[in-house]
Design brief:
single chain, alpha+beta, MS2 Viral Coat Protein, 2 domains, six-stranded antiparallel sheet, globular
């Protein structure tokens, strides 16, 4: 079982910016990492959980929550306000007889798929929100 520890991820800016997510808590089997913005309302979150079903399948769920915050002035008072929130969710679902090599291959393929935002089709769907024909 891995130790709960900080994670650093680069974004898609040019040049890429490294974002540091620090462990916040483990509650009900869900580990939460936070990138503090200085305003708790605007903290970016990553949650991870591992669950085993009665049939032996193992389900891993990773959720990413990235709020966009700005200051709103109400009656002359500036207050941090969430303008919108962007979400992503990645689910892995493995059979109890899957091998470590198979799971590593799936993780690599998924990782490389999302690195493919430079691929015209993937970029058009994920970044430009276009449908596929």
């Amino acid at each position: 079982m891995p130790q709960f520890q900080p994670v650093t991820i680069k974004d898609g800016q040019n040049p890429p910016v490294a974002h540091s997510f620090k462990p916040r808590e483990i509650n009900g089997g869900v580990a939460t990492l936070i990138e503090s913005t200085g305003i708790p309302l605007g903290d970016r979150r990553i949650t991870m959980s591992v669950n085993r079903t009665s049939t032996g399948r193992v389900k891993l769920v990773m959720k990413f929550t990235f709020p966009v915050v700005d200051n709103a002035v109400v009656n002359g008072v500036s207050k941090a306000t969430i303008l919108r929130t962007n979400y992503a969710e990645v689910n892995f679902n493995f059979d109890s007889t899957s091998t470590a090599a198979e799971r590593a291959d799936v993780a690599s393929l998924v990782n490389n798929f999302f690195l493919g935002v430079n691929n015209p089709m993937i970029g058009a769907v994920v970044v430009d929100l276009e449908g596929i024909y």
